[in-house]
Amino acid sequence: MISRAALDAARAAFDIEADGIREMKNFFEDEAFDTAVSLLSAAERIGASGCGHSGIACQHFAHLMCCAERPTRFISPADAVHGAMGFLQAGDVMLLASRGGKTGELLPIAEICRAKGVSVITVTENTESPLAKSADVILKMHVNRETDKWNAQGTTSTTVLCVIFHALQAAVIEQTGYRAEQFARIHPGGAVGERLNHRTL
To answer: Measured between alpha carbons, how far is 197 from 171 in angstroms, rounded to an integer?
Structure first.
């Protein structure tokens, strides 16, 4: 059996992350969110990029946007500076996620966006960071603490980032008038597809 300390740490993780989500509501800024949703709703193409856990969350964001029929691609920071930024054109949107806002691999992407007329949404905890200062709109994230005892692993921060992405998708669906019938067409698979398509028959 695992130790009592291990069980206590597992139970505490639920409370830490739940507190993190609740506290995030205090950092929700209507004007910034309004701008971000307007940009995402109007863009012909959307890119998303981040490193580490933020990058994994950005892949989730790209899929969420595709599920709302907003064409989105995760662009790895390595590929971005080797031609992949050709995916985005003037009037498109790039979302960059970095808790500290100093991720060196993302700064050249922001520069490319400025040169091409691509709007930048930055999600970060550090609104005074280089990445934040390069953005057209900043969505502030807040992390109470990570779940590990060293407060170092990307746990609560990843959850908070994903909740921001979920909120963006919920708002984009409302803003664009996206309908269940549309989602049923592109999601015929699985239990969700079965339920949606049965409803729309």
So the answer is: 23
CA 96 → CA 2, 6, 18, 85, distances in Å?
Answer: 39, 35, 24, 13
Which residue, chain included where needed, has tokens 């698979």? 189
Q: What is the pTM of this model?
A: 0.93
- Which residues, in sequence order, are CB contacts of 175 under 8 Å at separation 6+? 37, 38, 41
Tokens 């662009």 found at = 75
Q: Which of 85, 75, 93 is nearest to 38 (CA)?
A: 93
DSSP 130-153: HHHHT-SEEEE---S--SSTTS-S
Q: Measure the CA–CA gap between 187 and 60, rounded to whole angstroms.
A: 16
What would the DSSP string read from start to end of 38-61? HHHHH-S-EEEEESHHHHHHHHHH
What token pair was written down for 22? 């609740």
Order of strands, sheet of 137-140, starting from the edge strand that comes earlier in the sequence: 72-74, 46-50, 93-97, 119-124, 137-140
Could you read off the pLDDT of 50-61 as tens digits, one per residue?
A: 999 999 999 999
**What is the Cα–Cα distance from 48 to 121, expressed in whole angstroms?**
9
Per-residue pLDDT tens digits for 90-102:
999 999 999 999 9
Q: Tell me the per-residue pLDDT of 128-159, one tens digit each, with 9 for 90 and over.
A: 999 999 999 999 999 999 999 999 999 999 99
